[in-house]
Amino acid sequence: MGKNVVEKILESHLVSGKLKEGELIGVRVDQVYTQDATGTMTWLEFEAIGIDKVRVPLAVSYVDHNMLQSNFMNADDHLFLQTAAAKFGAYFSKPGNGISHQVHLERFAAPGLIALGTDSHTPTGGGIGMLAIGVGGLEAASVMAGLPFEFTMPKVLKINLLGKLKKPYVTAMDVILTLLKMLTVKGGVGKILEYGGPGVKALSVTERATITNMGAELGATTSIFPSDELTLKFLKSQGRGYQWVEIQADEDAEYAEIIELNLSEIEPMIAKPHSPDNVVPVREVAGLKVNQVCIGSCTNSSYKSMKTVASILRGNTVHEDVNLLINPGSKQVYEMLVSDGSLKELISAGARILESSCGPCIGMGGAPGSGQVSVRSYNRNFKGRSGTKDAEVYLASQITCALAAINGELVNPLDAGISIEDIPEPDSFLVNDNLIIPPKKDKTKIIKGPNIKEVPVKEPLEDTIKAEVIIKLGDNITTDDILPAGSQVLPFRSNIPMISTFTFKNIDETFAERALKAKQHGGGIIVGGENYGQGSSREHAAIAPMYLGIKVVIAKSFARIHRANLINFGILPLIFANSDDYEKVEQGDLLEIKNLLDRVTNSQKYIIVNLNKNVEFEVFSNLNAKETELIIQGGLLPYVRNKVLS
Ligand code: MIC
Ligand code: SF4
Q1: Ligand 1 atom 7, closest CA
Q2: pLDDT tops 80 at residue 443
């Protein structure tokens, strides 16, 4: 029987289990990378595991999120990361070098490898034919400590691409927005999306990377393209042609599901507030007045994207009612825009050029005004994420964004009446790795500023939990809802006691206080709806609730990375056996679960008694063998320590 691309890569890395959907498998990992906002915890966790050097072929520590430096905290974190990388054997990508996913694609990613990153948009590497998966920090630390990456084998869904995009008016961003409209933010849960078909040839590596980047918004484990001659062209133009291997699915490869997508039929699309799947064609919202436009991020930052924007802005002026902010994804792109004069065109048109960092995408500056409309070539528009609670954030291609910036309103690129240049991918990129610091051979001392605190560890599972429902939530709760980001909160990513006070802050100001009170009397429970914990990989959305005494989360379903993070910190994720039972619980109810140790090991079915309402309902936990062990021991940290040091 033939094999698909995913099976070929997994098979060559398999150390345990069988490549069968639903089975627990373990794979060897080639590369692990961290970014600063999740990385400080990851490297503290690595330190807490207690070994000297990373045990993976390549580890890279990036700094891209926390770069506002409004006080000492961010800069202290950067120094901690740099000294930790030097000591533990990782490359350090200095602030200014760019956004992890963009830089990694340019300088390290290679076809056929497996990479983990402590950020949900790690699948950007799928554009080059690498199996790149976003994970929580502790998971990454355990793999860097030499353990295999273990996960439940997802379904492989093939997206069969036909036809050709109407370039340059219709872009890769429009492809992924079309898929988000079709499949929704839950459509990829439990799946790996493998792109194939004749349409693949019409997309360059950086365009493919835009599509795999936003596979995260579909909830997919990861997304991947085959490695072909365009992959070779990209690698050669980065001076890394020697890293190319061809990886194509066999003719008779099998897939759990196949979806056809005709690129020729795609038109410019836009996601309306407040979800990346709230997608409509741009023509339906044309004419909407726009106050802010942001272009860049890890989604649409390639040199080709940026140069296209410069070509649209050339000789024009940003509309008087619009603020245009541009954050090129990497120093490489930035330097090339300077060398070819594009930066001059952008500045001359009135763009505000930011440094190469996440910036406005994660609310680190560039927040829109009250109730303002912001159109962004980014990947997430969750309510409040921009830093302004009542802002209306739309997601669209860099072309739609550039046109909105000069017109002051949304314009459908196909109706714009202007001719847009189709910029080719460069034959060679400007390679200058002077901001990538290799690990040090001699001993380095790790330097920790006063805001950097220990990683808290949970006690082992108790046999009975009697705890209060601290909050009851609806469907699609994001990790931004659980633990917001932005300039006020991000500086505390290395300080759990402090950051925990922001838990659910945008939904319920009193959550942290009430949870801490309940912690004195048996702890707390969170109740959610479908797809609980979608979005980012931040494990803080699990550590902070754990620190506040949350022991269990009951939901109708969970997003993959957040579920793993809960388990890694010893919080039991339970699923309603009958989703109507969601109605049997209210905020403030006292719930009791007995015989946990037996249930978790044997049946994984639990009866919950609502002591306030005097009703019972059934839930299950669906834990694999390893996850069961983690829940019993109180999380991954005690487990890894035992494994690695024994
Ligand atoms: C995001 O886009 O939400 C982030 C910020 O990059 C997160 C990581 C984090 O919260 O630090 C992600 O995507 O995982
Ligand atoms: Fe940074 Fe935004 Fe990309 Fe997250 S999605 S890594 S915040 S640019």
Answers
A1: 536
A2: no
